[in-house]
Amino acid sequence: MKHCITLTLLLLFAAGCSGRVGVSGKVSYDDGQPVEGCSVLFRSAGENYQGIADEKGKYQLGSGGNTNGIRPGIYQVTVASTYNDENENTVYKVSPKYAETGTSGLTCEVKGKTVFDIKVEHAGEAEQPPKYNRKPPRRDEN
Predict the structure, then answer these.
(1) What average pLDDT score do residues 69-76 get?
(2) Which one of 46, 112, 123, 134 is CB 3.0 to 4.6 Å from 88, fit for a cystine?
(3) What is the mean pLDDT of the chain?
(4) Domain count, the chain
(5) What distance in Å separates the CA atoms of residue 134 and residue 87, rounded to the nearest whole number?
(6) Is 39 strand, coil or helix?
């Protein structure tokens, strides 16, 4: 019994000392509309943490599909959101400049529990990739 209590306390102590802190926030356009389904990525040397925004633009970060928080540090932040149109062309919802650490202009220092709200711009027509009709032609059945 004594060993069981000691083991339980040790496990609880180890779980509390993981060094991870909660990071969450909201991604919205300049006009205040939420960016649903976008990917939010925090990157630093050897560490990547990702979250997906819900229908209200809210996200939480973790690693490996978990939302168990991240290690304190300074992170470059990227946001990406695309979909495929009816011809299977990629269409950017958010300006593609936010998808690269060199052009996003987003940095977050995480010391403790952090709320990091992000404002992004809609993707302009000039930022869209070339469009092709990638769907095979439809065959009429006789």
Answers:
(1) 93
(2) 134
(3) 83
(4) 1
(5) 6
(6) strand
Q: Tell me, rounded to whole angstroms, the distance of Cα 141 from its chain centroid.
A: 44
Residue 57 has pLDDT above 70, yes or no: yes
User: How does DSSP assign 77-119, residue by residue?
Assistant: EEEE-EEE-TT--EEESB-GGGGSHHHH-EEEEESSSEE--EE
In the predicted model, what is the mean pLDDT of residues 98-126?
94
Provide the pLDDT confidence category of residue 6 given band limits of 50, 70 and 90: very low
User: CA-CA distance, 72 to 89, in Å (whole number)?
Assistant: 38
Q: List 16's β-bridge partners, or say none.
A: none
Give the integer Cα–Cα distance in Å for 46 and 76. 12
- Entry pTM: 0.76
Burial class (CB in 10 A: 0-12, 13-18, 19+), 89: middle
The two structure tokens encoding residue 7: 């083991």
In a domain, 38, yes or no: yes
| Between residues 108 and 2, the one the model is more confident about | 108
Question: Where residue 56 sits, what CATH number does that domain have?
Answer: 2.60.40.10
**Per-residue DSSP letter, 139:** P
The closest alpha carbon to 106, from 89, 94, 90, belongs to 94
- Domain hosting residue 38, numbered range: 20-127
